[in-house]
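Two proteins were folded this term; both appear here.
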Amino acid sequence: MFSGIIEHQGRVSAARRLDRDLEITVATGIPDLALGESIAVNGVCLTVTSFDAAGTATFFLSSETLSCTALGRIEAGHIVNLERAVTPATRLSGHIVQGHVDGTARLLAVEKTGEGRHITFEVPARLRRYLVEKGSITLDGISLTLNAVGAPGGEGCAADMFRIALMIIPHTWDHTSLGTLKPGDAVNVEVDVIAKYVESVCQYR
């Protein structure tokens, strides 16, 4: 379990294709890693399969993970967002994040507004029912607040897509991978799991 508060930015030092799978090596900057621990890498819960004293860790990404996330675009040199699993004593500064990606979104535009950035993404319409204005969303592992949520097919979107807008403060822009994205880039999306549980409960009442 995670909270969407990015602790480190890691740099991918190697990305090795293994048939339909992928193995990545990341310089995490985390000195006390443990074999088998879970780390959210761009919002995807991955397992440390090996590491060294310098904090360089290896992660295995199965074909299932690659098909459901945007991690397939990762190459050596890329910067990734990292978060270790929370503990019972951790402050929940973000929201409940599982590291289980629900889909991918595409960056449409970035507009500088004062010192902040107003950013818009295009998101699959099947996720619209889980999102509300001023609610939480996780993009590439970052817990963010939704400023605006459009309707499927609205604002020039295809019928199976909709737009979301967010305001990003300078700290988040400078200390996560958001600042490295270009229009057209894909990011991992995880909606608030509480919304999914509420939907499931209502369906069976």
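Next, the second protein.
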Amino acid sequence: MAKLNARHKRFVTEYLVDLNGTQAAIRAGYSPKTAAEQAARLLTNVKVQEAIQEAMKKREERTEVKVDRVVLELWNTVTADTNEIVELRRCCCRYCWGEGFKYQFTVGEMRNRHEQYNIEATAAMVKGESIGPFNPQGGIGFNATKLPNSDCPECFGDGELKPFFKDTRKLSAAAKSLYAGVKITKDGIEVKMHSKDKMIELLGRHLGMFKDKVEVTGEGGAPLNVIFNIPRPPKE
């Protein structure tokens, strides 16, 4: 690392954390009020720049992680489609596709209804009673993934909103970069994702697109008075 004083070295170390000059200056011990100005000055210092580049190179060699790989990971996160991880689907209701728009069942549900009907019908017959014929209502074939029926008199074509979580083992490389895990709560499953805003900022800094804003003011935040000493022309 280029020859620097202790605070400059600390700034270089902190700058490599998130490439944020202002925050690095604050963590290095500079006043928050002048951190942006100090960061701008340090980042234009040749020795500081050399130290940053040297430190980055050593980190690459030590971790075997190249800048291109980091940028690719950031790019994947920024461009990933969240629908690869979780979707909010508008699906049909139970009446949408039933016969005569009556309540529709799956094959398994209908089988269970038949079994229950037979039990109740047998019990009634033993007593010399009858419970009447089996009522299939809207029939079988309910598929919760179907689109709503615009003519449905129950949901009026709006269907029902249902969250759908994808199998994270089958995510694309970009979606895997965005995915940050799940959390089981009393209300259900919470899917976590990395902040795209933060990744856009980091990507922009790596590509040199974003610069720290520098505001120079006088004491107490007052406007800075600049005095120009312009030499007078020599007398003839």
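Helices lie at 6-18, 21-27, 35-43, 46-63, 67-79, 107-126, 173-178, 196-206. DSSP finds eight helices and four strands in the chain. These notes refer to the second protein only.
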